[in-house]
Amino acid sequence: QVQLQESGPGLVKPSQTLSLTCTVSGFSITTNSYSWNWIRQSPGKGLEWIGYIDYSGDTDYSPFFLSRTSISRDTSKNHVTLQLSSVTPEDTAVYYCYRGGVSGSYWGQGTQVTVSS
To answer: Could you write out the DSSP letters of every residue in 21-62?
Structure first.
């Protein structure tokens, strides 16, 4: 069974870098043709796609986040990491890890991140 679990600090101060990890179980992140996405939902807003890293390690980012986002992976730990720099209170959101694909879509439960001094 594929499971995704986000983890990271629940509170980050403005101007700092947010770092979140998505630990995947039941499926290898290097499996051909799959990508591992980060998505967030801010209060009162819809879902925002941040970016992904795919099975080969290639990345793609939303233009809105491109200048301050990095997504990486550790294949030995089977996890994917999101780093979002220079955060502001507008980055307060629930952050989700997501995998789509022909064999089904999977979401993590999400992790709340609050940006506040």
So the answer is: EEEEESS-TTSTT-EEEEEEE-TT--EEEEEEEETTS-EEE-
